[in-house]
Amino acid sequence: MAHTDNQRNGMKESANASADTDALAPADPARQSLMARCRACGVEIEDTFCTKCGQHRDDFRRSIFDLAHAFIEETFGIESRMWRTLRSLACEPGAVARHYADGVRTKFTPPIRLFIIASALFFLSIAITETLFLAIDLQPRGQDEARHRPARPAFDFFRTDFLETDVDCGIDLSVRLFVRANAISNDQDAWNQCADRIRLLIDATGDERPQAISRFDQFQAGVAEILSNPYLVNNTFNTWLPRVFLIMAPVMALLIAVFVRGSRALVYDNLIFAFYFHAVWLTVATLAVVIAHANVPLIGLGAGLLLVGYLIVSIRRFYGRGWLKTILTASGVSALYLAIMVAISGIITIKTIQLVGA
Q: How far apart are CA 205 and CA 220, in angstroms?
């Protein structure tokens, strides 16, 4: 019995000595690397988030090389989220947005990130191809055409403000979108003659409103400058369009909310849909700009019809609506969206003309 007790006492002493040794020994480096203290509450955390306050354990500090490597891997990797997202966007319109809104997010590139990348590529293509967002094309009408065409005012704005009779300057003025500068050939002499003719008629009416006459002179000078250098108005578009695109995505989400109701059509869902759709249409616009550089006819019309069809299919798949409601929703959203874009483009153009002509 004494021998047995001695054995037990010896085993206890050995166990205590082993525990003391473990306590004094340095911690396992692998385990120590996993253990970290939350910077917010100081609790030790082993997982991605703190179990007490929920803060992420990563401090998000990265070198420029790490950021570049992560971007390249994310963007150009064959099995990356980017390519998976693009494939799904192309083959299943509306499916990526629906999955992302329903919580399936690790498979796909976030909508805002994809929107920023698509925007950058779009403006890069505009710069490389030297494409003009908007250009004024002004040409004199031929004598035969002018003879058979009924007289019409050159500018209703000035006719109503200054003149009681219509003025036909014999010119055709049109606005062209996404064209190269060498595709525009303006007859500046025709514009100057038209402006002089309107100015003489204003003087003949005896209008003594200095502010109104000054406004016309400013407009005439601004148009003349833009005709001679179409990049003036496009520099303004380059400055404002990125901001406009960023604003128009939430605007589209609000427009959709006017036509669609339901638990799967909340503002959060609409925003995800809108940013993904903007990424798609910016990508299509980028391809159209590059293809148009090769003088492919009707590429703009084809891109527009493609986007309309894509929007219809996307809305139907994302919101689960019938074809009739989907077409009505797409038509309403498209009409209001285009009206807002035209209004913004008009404001930018008019403000540019006023600044240039000042």
A: 19
pTM reported for the whole predicted model: 0.70
Determine the Cα–Cα distance for residues 66 and 59; give it in Å rounded to an integer. 14
Q: Are the C-beta atoms of residues 351 and 236 closer than 8 Å to each other?
A: yes
By the 8 A CB rule, do 46 and 34 touch? yes
**How far is it, in rounded angstroms, from Cα 105 to Cα 81?**
10
Both tokens of 137, joined, read 């094309």
pLDDT digits (tens, 9 = 90+) for 101-133: 998 888 888 999 999 999 999 989 888 888 877
CA dihedral of residues 77, 82, 86, 89 (deg, nearest 10): 150
- The Cα 184–Cα 136 span in angstroms is 8
What are 207's strand-pairing partners?
A: none
- How far is the CA of 12 from the CAs of 4, 8, 23, 24, 68, in angstroms? 13, 6, 16, 18, 58
Cβ-Cβ contacts under 8 Å for 240 (sequence gap 6 or more): 348
Residue pair 85/96 in contact (Cβ under 8 Å)? The answer is yes
Q: DSSP state, 51?
A: T
Can you tell me the distance from the alpha carbon of 127 to that of 133, in angstroms, rounded to the nearest whole number? 11
pLDDT in tens, 301-349: 888 899 999 999 999 999 998 999 999 999 999 999 999 998 998 888 8
